[in-house]
Amino acid sequence: MDPWWILGGVQTITGALRIGAFEPTFEAELAARYEIPKLPEEPGRAGFLAQHGAEVRVVLTSGGPGVDADLVAALPNLEAIVNNGAGVDAIDLDAARRRGIGVSNTPDVLSDTVADTALGLILMTLRGFGAADRYVRAGRWVSEGPFPYARDVTGLRVGILGLGRIGSAIATRLLGFGCAIAYHNRHRVAGSPYRYAESPVELAESVDVLVIATTGDRNTRHLVDRAVLEALGPQGYLVNIARGSVVEQDALVALLTGGRLAGAGLDVFADEPNVPPELFGLDNVVLFPHIGSATAQTRRAMALLAIRNFESYLSTGELVTPVLARRP
Ligand code: 8YV
User: Fold this and answer.
1) Cβ pair 78, 57 in contact under 8 A
2) Is residue 127 located within the same domain as residue 200?
3) Alpha helices, H only, 63-110
4) What is the 146 CA–ligand 1 centroid distance (Å)?
5) 271-to-85, 165, 217, 243, 268 alpha-carbon distances in Å
6) Least confident segment among 3-12, 16-25, 80-89, 303-312
7) Confidence band for 14, pLDDT divided at 50, 70 and 90
8) What is the CATH number of the domain that holds 274?
9) Could you tell me whether strands 102-104 and 322-324 are parallel, antiparallel, or unpaired per DSSP bridges?
10) Which of 157, 159, 221, 156 minimizes the C-alpha distance to 185?
11) Given a cut of 50, is residue 3 above it in pLDDT?
């Protein structure tokens, strides 16, 4: 290990910098091992960067606020960005690529848990399980009688937008429900047993439920626009466990409040933690606070993988799970 990384064996890491608040498990696992300086918020941020920016070689981050082009520019010797999370949408990958900065994420270890969340949203939205629970608690079973009928999940036609690791885990689960799976992806997945749709609109118009499992980046921004939502139609449901940026949220809200979509199950939003209040009164909409991967086991596995990337970079100059390879 280079001498500038560790001072006197006390695991005080120099040359590294933490950006933003970390989710609790990553915070705890990191704090148990290392002391790493945090980038202060303004008003101290600019002064800190002017004084220490050139010392920073590795950045640790965990989703937002991430690392934008300005921050990359303020860290002239940055070599690697380690993200605790699969999605790297809060990191300016173009700015990193231009400078040859490596970027790592935490793939695979969260796929099953996020897929479980998607199934939970499908079941809750179509069967009205959340609304049914509220019905009992409000005493309405007693005062109003039986809860209204819901929609079957078994045998549904489900379209998956983005058949990557998470999308595939969702599809596998849905096979157990006898669902017919179709997908759209930037590229057709060789050997996939599922029907391929040429476009998001073509996928949406041929399914009962559209599940978004793409990455969130500038290529997927508003991929699910008004035209796709209208193609899904008044009998169709939208489920999103990916990123709010993939959906034209204003159009989604307008169609849901106008009764032109059957319902939606949403774990992610355009401007988290703000959720359009127009959705709060709709029983055909299920709203989660971005909990796709939020189990104790998975958050620990993610934290340990992020730390493995960090340690590997410090000792070998290689990231374990890079989304962007370092180019010295
Ligand atoms: C976390 C996520 O909320 O992995 C992702 O991309 O969206 C979530 O698992 C995020 O990483 C913050 O820790």
Assistant:
1) yes
2) yes
3) 69-74, 93-99
4) 39
5) 18, 25, 15, 10, 9
6) 3-12
7) confident
8) 3.40.50.720
9) antiparallel
10) 159
11) no
pLDDT at 328: 87
- Residue 273 domain-assigned (yes or no): yes
Q: Catalytic: 272? A: yes
* 226 against 3, higher pLDDT: 226
Whether residue 61 is found in the same domain as residue 122: no
Catalytic residue among 272, 308, 311, 318: 272
Q: Is the CB of 90 under 6 A from ligand 1?
A: no
The whole domain housing 90 covers 11-105+296-324
User: Using a 6 Å cutoff on CB, does residue 66 contact ligand 1?
Assistant: no
* Distance of CA 85 from the midpoint of ligand 1 (Å): 4
Any ligand 1 atom below 6 A from CB of 162: no
Of 173, 222, 290, 300, which is the active-site residue?
A: 290
Residue 219: which of 193, 200, 196 has the closest Cα?
200
* Top mutation candidate among 111, 116, 290 for ligand 1, by most atoms within 8 Å of CB: 290
Place of tokens 């860290």: 75
Is 6 within a domain? no
Are 172 and 259 in the same domain?
yes
Active site residue 243: yes
Of the pLDDT bands very low, low, confident and very high (cuts 50, 70, 90), residue 23 is very high
Ligand 1 binding pocket includes 85 (Cβ within 6 Å): yes
pTM for the whole structure: 0.94
- 275-325 pLDDT per residue, tens: 999 999 999 999 999 999 999 999 999 999 999 999 999 999 999 999 999
6 pLDDT more than 70: no
Domain co-membership, 225 together with 305: no
> Which atom of ligand 1 lies nearest, measured to the CA of 294?
9
pLDDT for residue 5 is more than 50:
no
Q: In whole angstroms, what is the distance from residue 308 CA to residue 319 CA?
A: 8
